[in-house]
Sequence to fold (545 residues):
Amino acid sequence: MTTFVPIPDGVGIGLRAPHYEQALESLPPLGFLEVHSENFFHAGGAAMHILMRARENYPLSLHGVGLSLASADELAQAHLAKLATLVERTEPALVSEHLCWGAVDGAHLNDLLPFPYSREALSLVCERVQQVQDRLGRRILVENLSSYVRFRDADMSECEFLAELVQRSGCGVLLDVNNLYVNAQNFGFDAHPEMLDFMRRLPASAIGEIHLAGHSQGELCLVDTHGTQVCEAVWALYRDAIAACGAVPTLIEWDTDLPALAVLLDEAAHAHKIMQNACSREALHV
Amino acid sequence: MSESFRLRQAQRGFAAAVRSSAAQQDALLLLAGDAARNQQLLAVYRGNSVANAGKALRLAYPVVERIVGEEFFGGLCRAFWQECPSRSGDLNEYGEGFGDFLANFPHVAELPYLADVARVEWLVSRAAHAADHVAATPAQLANMPLESVGVLRLDLQPGLALFASTWPVATIWQQHQTDYADEIDIDLNKDECLAVHRVGLRVDVTVLSTAELALWRQAQAGQTLAAMLETAFAVDESFDVQSALQAGFAHEFITALHA
Fold:
């Protein structure tokens, strides 16, 4: 089995069940494919065959949604063991998880939930990330969260939290530009300086992947549905992100109301163009 | 006191509010901003959590959903989510007890077979994710030296599950597949034994006679072929060994034979 190295300027898409056959028959030119790790925790079966076929043709990114890194509960060893098996089996180019929790006292809500960015939480998450990296024998990326509520009891911002986490654990960051935009809109701040803050606080090498997705307007707030096209404001933030940190593997993430594969590929092509423009500008300034 | 005590308290409060709108007080004290608005925002999280659980149940129980209809199934998901919280960060693990839940849920009492349909669907989803197998062939049995046939033991595919119901659940399952084109014709007075198994990567549900069920149960328990046959004949004197074994090979139940 060949070990793939991620293409630095690669743009990928999330591979979801309705697109399995079409994507693997047409093999569109993409930098990588990303899947939710938990959907491939099983020993075998049709889905696993699809993943191995994908693996033969593209670098893979394993994106976890259920490890619950910030839960006060102990890290779920069985979950981590399944992830380790999958990593061994597929040799992914990227492995990522979320800066969130989803379970307490053994009961799971299976959602990406926010928590107060306290010193206490920081020590706990650092320790968890180290446990995961030790078990997997590699660096993982941790993704910033979209959130609808804020806590009174925070000692720092999410960005400060992530910067310390990176420094202490050696993990990387999966910067979700849409999450950043959703939070900015929901909490009434400007997304642009927030993103520059991310870029300033984090070493350039820390940003290992960027996520782009669409959101929906809920009654009270923007909801991170991953069910629409990337909006113009998020594309603008993405341009600035790439200008600041250089080419980074970028994912078009779409989970609900999945459109035709061609729509995802158009979005990916758009991201690719932005990345190329940024890189050629960078080259001119050398 | 553990180092993460405050975090645990915060998460307990938040989780209680997500699980029930009647238990939001602790969470509201944690959150910044307007309490009335925060109540509504917690409801967004509640909606997400129910919806995620519902997606997992829809994936595992398509036949139950087809029988009761999409809207009613949504109500079942919410009731199940209230009563049986997920125990895993992997939602593919969620829903194991759905059959038992339906058996005791008063609003589906007029569909008494529904619980068994759900139990079979859970076995189907387990089989779909089971380790892949290589099927044994009848020739492997034929090539066994005659004196070892009696003490022969059979290895069965990892996804194989045997089930006996007082309802015709195999027929119900088969006739509610999306590719089933004929009229639905089910005699609810029949009971059925069945095997859930894989043929290659595809999962299938096959009706078994009571003697066949006994036969394969013995094999699963690691008994010899002689013991398997003895049990099957005890159930049915006219048991047809040859067709039962042929069917076992054809359905890929058997993966290896060893003396």
